[in-house]
Design brief:
The chain has 327 residues and is an alpha/beta fold. Helices cover 31% and strands 23% of the residues. The strands form three sheets. The chain has an eight-stranded parallel sheet with strand order 5-6-7-8-9-10-11-12. A three-stranded antiparallel sheet has the order 1-2-3. Strands 4-14-13 form a three-stranded antiparallel sheet, with no helix packed on it. β6 (146-150), α7 (156-166) and β7 (171-175) form a beta-alpha-beta unit.
Length: 327
């Protein structure tokens, strides 16, 4: 039975602004690939990311470029040969997982080898801003067990202290998004240690992180922009303690699951991360979360409006997806 591919661009308003070291945005623009085969339908959502040279139009065009082989029945291994890791492959890969689950009646998590999926506690993001703004935001979210604090370089010592003051009981991870430099590294890490930060994400620019192999650190360091798929893992040994696995970077759930297994074999702690998207983007990542010590799947919590049906969140506890959403 033939497969029909459709590609759509959707936008979801963000509640307030989402601000990191590279800038701010007020909406999440996503690309959705839908595969229909008879009565079965599978969907996958991706979030194009300019940091990796992606745009919404470019990702949609890339998905369209493989329409013929996808509609002819290309499977997930074939897709990995057709497209490189990235957002476009992620949307199609997740749509193929969903379609297979819908056709077979077997949930995606079982197809992936899990007997069940456990709910996970997700981090909740505090956007970067002036220290007093971040303290207020942290205080508002202080009931959440884990906060992810966005940083921006200069002034981060004060930002870290402010967030800790606003949320004295929450566990903290911080994410510099490549904004630190060698000269700031020791002071910023010491500030993190004083605040009891559990993990520091991507302090230095990707490609300029060799200094991490030559220094001891009081706080574990996690690769984000420096890690994409399995091919990028081995060079990070000795530089990083953990890796942030995101489906949009890896190019889909298939690679992300394989990456999680290899990362564990290399001794890395795993974070299951996300871009800012809807519940459809988070749903397959809940499978990766089963391997993760840190889970950051709060995208829908940052939106003013999610898709329906969406994932079920109980405060910071995210539940596995229902089949109506994905898988």
């Amino acid at each position: 039975m033939p497969i029909e591919l459709s590609v759509a661009v959707e936008t979801f308003p963000i509640a307030g602004r989402f601000v990191i070291s590279r800038g701010a945005k007020t909406e999440a623009a996503v690309v959705v690939a839908t595969l229909r085969q008879g009565a079965a339908m599978g969907r996958g959502e991706c979030v194009p990311y300019a940091r990796y040279g992606e745009s919404v139009a470019g990702v949609a065009a890339t998905i369209e470029s493989v329409r013929a082989p996808i509609e002819a029945g290309a499977d997930r291994p074939a897709l990995a040969e057709l497209l490189p890791p990235g957002a476009a492959r992620n949307a199609l890969d997740c749509a193929l997982w969903d379609l297979e689950a819908k056709r077979s009646g077997v949930p995606a998590y079982r197809l992936a080898g899990f007997s069940r999926l456990e709910p996970a506690t997700t981090a909740f993001t505090i956007s970067v801003g002036a220290p007093e703004e971040m303290r207020a935001a942290a205080a508002k979210a202080a009931h959440r067990p884990l906060l992810k604090v966005k940083l921006a370089g200069e002034g981060d010592v004060e930002r870290i202290a402010a967030v800790r003051a606003g949320a004295p009981e929450s566990k903290l991870v911080v994410d510099a998004n490549e904004a630190w430099r060698d000269r700031d590294l020791v002071a910023n890490l010491e500030a993190c240690a004083r605040a009891g930060v559990l993990l520091v994400e991507q302090p230095l620019p990707a490609g300029e992180d060799e200094i991490l192999a030559r220094m001891s650190r009081a706080v574990p360091i996690c690769a984000d922009e420096s890690v994409h798929d399995r091919a990028s893992l081995r060079k990070l040994v000795g530089r990083y303690d953990a890796v942030n696995i995101k489906l949009d970077k890896a190019g889909g759930l298939t690679e992300a699951l394989a990456m999680a297994k290899e990362a564990r074999s290399l001794g890395f702690t795993i974070m299951a991360g996300c871009m800012v998207g809807s519940s459809l983007a988070m749903a397959p990542a809940t499978l990766v979360a089963q391997y993760a010590a840190f889970v950051d799947l709060d995208g829908p919590l940052l939106l003013a409006r999610d898709r329906e049906p969406g994932l079920r969140y109980e405060e910071s506890l995210v539940h596995p997806p229902e089949p109506e959403l994905w898988g």
